[in-house]
Amino acid sequence: MSVDIDTVKRVAHLARIAVTDEEAEALKGDLNQILGFVEQLNEVDVEGVEPMTSAVATAMKMREDVVTDGNRVDDVVANAPRREGPFFAVPKVVE
Amino acid sequence: MSDLTELGIAAIRDRLAARDFSARELTGAYLEAMEAARGLNAYVAETPDLALAMADESDRRLGAGEARPLEGVPLGVKDLFCTRGVHAQAASRILNGFRPTYESTVTENLWADGAVMLGKLNMDEFAMGSSNETSCYGPVINPWRAANSNADLVPGGSSGGSAAAVAARLCAAAIGTDTGGSIRQPAAFTGTVGIKPTYGRCSRWGIVAFASSLDQAGPIARDVRDTAIMLKSMASVDPKDTTSVDVPVPDYEAALEGGVAGLRIGIPKEYRVDGMPAEIERVWDQGRAWLEAAGAEIVDISLPHTKYALPAYYIVAPAEASSNLARYDGVRYGLRDDAGDVIDMYEGTRSSGFGQEVKRRVLIGTYVLSAGYYDAYYLRAQRVRARIREDFDTVFETGVDAILTPATPSAAFAVDSMATASPIEMYLNDVFTVTANMSGHPGIAVPAALSDDGLPLGLQLIGRPFDESMLFRIGRVLEEAAGSFRAGRWW
């Protein structure tokens, strides 16, 4: 399977990364090399094999449904590039 | 005074207890060494005030007879770890100016045991790289040089700053992370010891996430004993990371001198890859001979799915990365490109904030997870991954105690020498290490020999889940046989 320039641009938009035509061209080559490299996985017989979802088999941990942390508004917004009081500020989204 | 940096952790522990010098003097010696070695570009942020304050507290505790296990030991920390109020950028422009308001569990454990933080160490951007050349701060220079050459070599990656700092004696030991080989490969390139513990042994809380099902923290140190001491302090079960596993952390140091008599060591034939340099084969055969001479039984084994580990990794890791890196949106931290509407802001911020390799991997990950491709790529890779783990399970069930392989397919290479290579050529650096990430097993790299050019080469041991003690024990035997390797000081 290989990707064309339009697919690269579509995927870049899905990933929210702006790319120039020149960058898209270079990425197309890289992506096709990587997709070509992973093609060999089709040789492996995986019939009936459960996908591995965690590296070490363990039961999902449960904990008490209680508040363990909170009331840290200043900490949460401390690194925001733009803020208004206790809020993150973003460009206007709704007209 | 500067010879204080010659002491490893075990020696520091004894000499501080004897009050031969103060923790403040020791930390001061490292701060001087760091200043003199800035050309190596190992540290991206130095924290001298914090280091001296922590050292003073260590001196107070030592005076009061309240020393903790790592009291006064000066450490370097990979830039991937969140450290309260201190620079943490994962060597990426997109985290410009980020100062975490919390501390990672692993570093918290180290400070609670009395260690001193010297600063943050360079790395590949978001831990994506095998040469430390994708860092937004520029490459780290390996303290090692080939015989009769002044060419700058890479220290490996992604924990290249950690490995270079340990090799150049710019910290007593360092911490790194390993997603596909990022501790073991740089350790091998710098003549240091590095272990990727079993997945779940160390908490991932507060470590900038790359590929969550693969990432694991571990130490890089000067010898096997110091590495064992470090891991004991780093490891813990943590309510803040549900993938951290609740198993006892043994006293690794106590198990160190057990020897290998009667142990079964597996040699996997699939690691003898096409085009393997003669010097790599030689060091592997030498390791086998050393263990045999020390009383181990050597058995030939097969791990049939080995060759599929790297391609499966290059689906799983980018897929998880594309999801994890979605959080860098210009809203909550770091860089922000304010042009246009909110979508322009996201796209502009991420375009100027991420480097080339990160973009490449985020795009691959987005593609393999996109509608219609999930089953063909991600799900198939996860199935192949189950096969890789079965290979290991089968071998360990036959009574093999550990597996011996080369750590890397070559010695350290020159800075910029891979600039025009395809991404795949760089990825092949991790061909021997990535299997243990895919399966979750622990792996250690131990320096074993010098190459024909006088550069360090490492051997890797892979062990049973949560049996890091066995790796330290066998690693110690390799180390005894091989001796230690030291970069000559030229910087």
Query: How much is the average pLDDT of chain A?
Result: 92
| Proportion of residues in β-strands of chain A | under 5%
Termini of chain A, distance in Å? 42 Å
The gross shape of chain B turns out to be: globular
State the separation between the terminal residues of chain B, measured CA to CA: 18 Å
* Poorly predicted segments of chain A: none
Question: Count of DSSP E strands of chain B?
Answer: 11
Class from secondary-structure proportions of chain A: mainly alpha
Unreliably modeled segments of chain B: none
Write down the CATH class of the domain at 5-41 in chain A. Answer: Mainly Alpha
Main sheet: strand order of chain A: 1-2
CATH topology of the largest domain in chain B: Amidase signature (AS) enzymes
Protein architecture, described:
The complex is a heterodimer of chains A (95) and B (491). By secondary structure, chain A is mainly alpha-helical. Chain A has a domain at 5-41: Histone, subunit A (Orthogonal Bundle), CATH 1.10.20. Chain A has helices at residues 5-14, 21-38, 73-77; strands spanning 83-84, 87-88. Chain A has a two-stranded antiparallel ribbon with strand order 1-2. In chain A, strand 1 and strand 2 form a beta hairpin. The longest helix of chain A is centred in the N-terminal third of the chain and has 18 residues, at 21-38. The radius of gyration of chain A is 22 Å and the shape is flat. The two termini of chain A are 42 Å apart. The mean pLDDT of chain A is 92. Chain B is globular and about 65 Å long. In chain B, strand 10 (443-450) and strand 11 (456-463) form a beta hairpin. Chain B folds into 2 domains: 2-261 and 402-482, Amidase signature (AS) enzymes (Alpha-Beta Complex), CATH 3.90.1300; 307-379, no CATH class. By secondary structure, chain B is of the alpha/beta class. Chain B has an 11-stranded mixed β-sheet, with helices on both faces. The interface between A and B is large, with 53 and 71 residues.
